[in-house]
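In the design runs reported in the main text, the only information available to the sequence generator was the tokenized backbone. The following block is the verbatim input for one such run; it is reproduced so that readers can re-run the procedure and compare outputs position by position.
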């Protein structure tokens, strides 16, 4: 049996327990043997040791209280310290290292990227800018390398397990652990004895340390083990909390509720001066629904008692304040934290019972209903909704509710339900005797009436809710380039920043070029192994990453398409990595369609669902239609709501991504979608292996990656916004200013810096993709072929579509260049369709291609005749006299001359 048992000396009056690793054994613990594995797995196990500077103690203190029983003091919170990555040869080395820890040290099983680094609190932005890191999950990660998986057992509800019994129960649930070497140690407060030999706590809580080959799989392994334990007899159970709440438990990690409420309600009613029924309701909501109403009392870390209403009235004072658990206030007084300014609904998060979130609400308003009181009731509900600030005016006539980091338009039924939750509706019934004298007045509870919801929805422009444009779950920039990193709503832009982070990462205000280059390296790291075909693809991908972080502030943004010559190259995975920057998690894919009506419905439904990223996956047909074109170049998108005879106009801040093999863009769509090509240059790219999962790395480091993207843009702004990229992309002007130009500027600075750029990507202007797509556009190719065949065949002679078809079929034959060009455009069942050709010529009238332009020569009795004119440059190249044509805005020729001086030409109206 591969178990290393760690005996400890007898307990003293005060026991420091760094990382809960030092402890004392009960009297019979000495009978256990230290068993060495026959052939233990030798793995260089990595972990991190944190040494605290402030405070000087991190660990729990276990001692004796006045009555001679065991006393525990909570571990302190780290303010300032130092992290050191440690690597030991095997479990014996781990045991030796844990034995040497002091009370100022703690162990984390995630490791830092740096071998040694300063550690500070999340709120200490100054220290972080100086190079320190916060003790957060993103800075202490499980790497794809050998590490340690720690299993903690806190006891059984009705019995005890020895260390060996605990191990046997684990193996019974997960037989794969049978051959795993393990190091056993007691938990911090297990197995303690007093100076007189009395047992203060039994040896019933254990920790097992298991070496693993790939520590990045520890979170998944933990979930799988929990599922296996719940499937095994006695491996999982539910405890009942002090308030009767259900608390799921496993081997590793009604009446009670009524008694708790009945016990607490009278005292709460007396202290708050409220009715007993109201106090009972407040406590029941807390115990059953995890909702803390305004009259609920909370205990601060210093023992002060405050109400939820006091927190909500002064959020800047109480944000991030520590409290006791609301249902178990007699335990740790620092186990819960108030989150009031994170942009979401205010809540209290308690780390007890595996983590519980309690929503903080004000007491419900009371609204009277009755005959002739519709207007008053509607105004009263509107007043309540404005005070709660949970609903927003979204677009032109929609109402949105923000939840789970996204804005979702609400329906009438939802609004009726919501009104019933934020207000108590009642009517008054008056009873009289035969003489008309009032004998009694009673309040009768009522349901929220639907007419109030209908009236509120109908009040377009007069609801006076806050305007909402987009919701972001990470810092971003406003359209003017200023930083928006304070959680909450920004009235000037309509942006809403929500986060569950207690201390969001700080964004540097005026970063330098070196900081921008460092940020580029961070941004590039998770996607560095994708097989980009060229520097254009890298530039397009970097632009997509910046756009994902800035999309809430951009009125319009070009789409990004990822294509490759073969399946399995990583197109969808790369698109999901980009999407994860915008959402913080995986992105759902949508099946593509080129049918305009269906396309419009899908896009509008996605916006109504609050989607921040639209990923059209595995596009097979040529992509392009008027719906996609207008969607990408419009800040508002409108359509009719299914089942309702009304149009709704919604803000469009969605990031549009496309993937497919050998993508083909048609029509005007080619300039609205930037293409990044991947090419693994092997026959079976889907069989490749990677040392890490890019999507997981993006999700785990999303906040840091967003800050890196913003750092690049802010460094460009601090440099004075120099215009480096040539031209400005029409329809996407702000994207050009805040995404394209910063990348073009950074590329020049990278070349000039003289620093080692081996860890940085080589890229070019992402707009180069547009030029390439234009040359590969099927419509452009058709037009080029037709114009060149037309000018060769007809010269400057005005020609009708019917004449062109006759010439191609009767005089040149089916294998002529002219016939091939016309067949690509108007071919139908082996013949050339004159109507299709005529409409196509009208649609491309005046479009310049290869130095040629199609213009209307004359119109006789409704018959249009066309001619092709050369530009001066094309005429010079062809060694031909240019035809000078003065063209009216309708592209119809006013006058024609055979020759002209170059000075006669201008770029607008003469060709």
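Verbatim output:
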């Amino acid at each position: 049996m591969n178990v290393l048992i760690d005996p400890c000396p007898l307990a003293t009056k005060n026991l420091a327990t760094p990382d809960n690793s030092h402890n004392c054994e009960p009297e019979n613990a000495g009978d256990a043997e230290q068993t060495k594995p026959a052939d233990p797995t030798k793995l260089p196990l990595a972990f991190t040791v944190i040494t605290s500077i402030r405070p000087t103690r991190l660990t729990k203190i276990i001692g004796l209280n006045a009555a001679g029983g065991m006393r525990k003091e909570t571990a302190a919170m780290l303010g300032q310290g130092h992290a050191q990555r440690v690597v030991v040869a095997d479990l014996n080395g781990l045991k030796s290292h844990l034995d040497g820890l002091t009370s100022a040290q703690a162990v984390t099983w995630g490791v830092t990227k740096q071998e040694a680094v300063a550690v500070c609190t999340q709120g200490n932005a100054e220290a972080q800018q100086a190079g320190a890191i916060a003790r957060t999950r993103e800075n202490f990660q499980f790497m794809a390398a050998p590490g340690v998986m720690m299993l903690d057992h806190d006891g059984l509800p009705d019995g005890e397990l020895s260390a060996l019994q605990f191990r046997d129960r684990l193996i019974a649930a997960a037989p794969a652990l049978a051959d795993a070497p393990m190091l056993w140690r007691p938990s911090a407060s297990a197995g303690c004895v007093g100076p007189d030999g009395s047992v203060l706590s039994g040896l019933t809580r254990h920790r097992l340390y298991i070496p693993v080959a790939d520590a990045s799989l520890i979170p998944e392994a933990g979930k799988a083990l929990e599922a296996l334990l719940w499937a095994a007899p006695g491996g999982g159970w539910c405890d009942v909390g002090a308030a009767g709440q259900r608390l799921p438990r496993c081997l590793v990690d009604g009446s009670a509720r009524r008694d708790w409420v009945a016990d607490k309600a009278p005292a709460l009613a007396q202290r708050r001066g409220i009715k007993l029924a109201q106090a009972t309701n407040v406590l029941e909501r807390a115990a059953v629904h995890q909702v803390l109403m305004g009259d609920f009392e909370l205990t601060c870390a210093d023992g002060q008692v405050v109400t939820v209403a006091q927190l909500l009235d002064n959020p800047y004072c109480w944000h991030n304040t520590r409290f006791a658990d609301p249902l178990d206030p007699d335990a740790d007084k620092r186990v819960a934290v108030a989150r009031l300014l994170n942009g979401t609904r205010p809540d209290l998060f308690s780390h007890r019972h595996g983590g519980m979130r309690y929503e903080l609400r004000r007491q419900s308003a009371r609204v009277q209903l009755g005959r002739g009181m519709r207007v008053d009731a509607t105004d009263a509900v509107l007043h309540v909704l404005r005070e709660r600030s949970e609903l927003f005016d979204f677009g032109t006539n929609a109402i949105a509710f923000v939840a789970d980091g996204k804005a979702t338009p609400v329906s009438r039924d939802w609004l009726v339900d919501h009104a019933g939750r934020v207000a108590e509706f009642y009517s008054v019934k008056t009873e009289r005797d035969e003489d008309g004298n009032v004998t009694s007045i009673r309040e009768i509870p009522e349901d929220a009436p639907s007419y109030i919801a209908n009236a509120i929805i109908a009040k377009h422009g007069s609801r006076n809710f806050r305007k909402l444009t987009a919701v972001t779950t990470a810092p971003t920039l406003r359209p003017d380039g200023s930083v928006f990193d304070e959680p909450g709503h920004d009235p000037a832009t309509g942006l809403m920043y929500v986060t569950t982070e207690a201390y969001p990462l700080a964004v540097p205000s005026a970063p330098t070029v070196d900081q921008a280059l460092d940020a580029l390296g961070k941004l590039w790291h998770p996607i560095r192994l994708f097989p980009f075909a060229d520097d254009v693809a890298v530039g397009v991908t970097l632009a997509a990453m910046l756009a994902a972080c800035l999309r809430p502030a951009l009125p319009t943004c070009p789409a990004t398409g990822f294509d490759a010559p073969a399946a399995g190259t990583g197109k969808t995975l790369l698109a999901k990595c980009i999407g994860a920057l915008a959402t913080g998690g995986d992105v759902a894919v949508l099946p593509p369609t080129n049918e305009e009506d269906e396309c419009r419905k899908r896009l509008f439904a996605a916006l109504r669902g609050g989607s921040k990223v639209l990923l059209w996956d595995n596009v097979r047909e040529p992509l392009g239609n008027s719906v996609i074109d207008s969607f990408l170049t419009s800040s508002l998108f409108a359509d009719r709501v299914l089942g309702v005879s009304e149009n709704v106009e919604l803000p469009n801040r969605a990031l549009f991504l496309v993937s497919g093999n050998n993508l083909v863009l048609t029509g005007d769509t080619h300039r609205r979608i930037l293409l990044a090509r991947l090419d693994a240059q092997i026959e079976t790219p889907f069989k490749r292996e990677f040392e890490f999962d890019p999507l997981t790395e993006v999700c785990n480091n999303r906040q840091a990656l967003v800050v890196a993207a913003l750092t690049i843009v802010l460094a460009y702004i601090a440099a004075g916004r120099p215009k480096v990229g040539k031209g400005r992309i029409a329809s996407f002007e702000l994207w050009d200013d805040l995404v394209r130009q910063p990348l073009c500027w950074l590329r020049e600075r990278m070349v000039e810096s003289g620093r080692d750029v081996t860890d940085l990507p080589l890229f070019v202007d992402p707009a180069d993709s547009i030029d390439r797509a234009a040359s590969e556009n099927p419509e452009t190719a058709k037009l080029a072929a037709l114009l060149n065949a037309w000018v060769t065949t007809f010269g400057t002679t005005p020609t009708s579509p019917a004449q062109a078809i006759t010439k191609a079929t009767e005089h040149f034959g089916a294998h002529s260049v002219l016939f091939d060009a016309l067949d690509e455009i108007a071919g139908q069942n082996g013949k050339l369709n004159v109507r299709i050709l005529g409409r196509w010529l009208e649609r491309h009238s005046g479009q310049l291609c290869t130095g040629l332009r199609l213009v209307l020569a004359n119109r006789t009795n409704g018959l249009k005749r066309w001619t092709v004119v050369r530009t001066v440059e094309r005429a010079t190249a062809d060694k031909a006299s240019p035809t000078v044509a003065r063209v009216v805005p309708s592209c119809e020729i006013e006058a024609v001359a055979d020759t002209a001086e170059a000075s006669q030409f201008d770029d607008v109206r003469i060709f």
